[in-house]
Design goal:
By secondary structure, this protein is mostly beta strands. The chain has one helix spanning 278-281, and strands spanning 9-14, 17-22, 28-33, 36-37, 55-56, 62-64, 67-70, 73-76, 86-88, 98-103, 106-113, 123-132, 136-145, 151-153, 156-157, 160-161, 171-174, 176-179, 193-194, 206-207, 214-220, 228-234, 237-243, 249-253, 267-272, 286-288, 293-302. It has a nine-stranded antiparallel beta sheet with strand order 10-11-12-13-27-23-22-17-20, with no helix packed on it. It has a six-stranded antiparallel beta sheet with strand order 16-25-24-21-18-19, with no helix packed on it. The radius of gyration is 18 Å and the shape is globular.
Amino acid sequence: MTEPVTGEQFEIAAGEYRAVVTEGGAGLRELTFEDRPLILSHDADEPAPAALGQLLIPWPNRVDRGRYVFGGREHQLDLSEPENDCAIHGLVRWSPWTAAEREPHRVLLTHRLLAAAGYPYRLDLTAEFTLDARTGLAVRVTAVNTGTRTAPYAHGTHPYLTVGEPIDGCEVTVAADRYLPVDDRKIPSGPPQDVTGTPYDRREPALLGDLRIDNAYTGLHRDAAGRAWGRLRGGGRAVSFWLDDAHPWLEVYTADDLPPALRRRGLGMEPMTCPPNGLTTGIDVIELGPGDTTTGSWGIIAE
């Protein structure tokens, strides 16, 4: 018996929503509403290109040269992005996850992260994907330190929102006051900057055009429930992304380096608990002691 390279495919549905989550990496491979895609997808027998829908644990984005210091110890991660001399997007993207609970509208996946090169810690992870006919997709990621020493921890995820047409002709809204400038290796080059008067000011809906963005936003505006929002609107359709207050950062990426068939067809909106290069700088990195738990949620809804 043969199976797709991304492993078992866990399908869930509610109302007009349908999603597929993969055994490999607990990746969100598909999400549709009324049979129309809300995220960029890939074939089940293809590794996720450009981190499409992947979970990024125990750090999102990049670690400069793969080096960081924590608890007085120096660590060297494998350089998983050699072209930029960086470690990128954590350690669980390609690992198998196990379905611990399954319902027609919900799946709960688990993974035990044991010590790896540059990350000598142990975490028990869960990722819960739930669909609701009215409110769309909600995802909750939880980490428990089941090891003997305090671990540095952060997480993120990497969906690309789509309305079925190139994003150049779409309106993009990101309710955030500051963005993080980066150098040519995508490493932060200074503190967060005010978006006022810059092309990165997306606090009101504005046509994207040919603007290239690969930056983290912070100073996020939140509603009464503590959620911050981003939106993509075009072609008579709209899709919105929310992230809870466990995520003070939202990476926005205009998909400029994706394979040609996907390039600028979707907009990356990536909730993060720490900024790029967080393990190195320590900014917003969670110090997760033995027995401690941390969790965060995000979601996607068709409008």
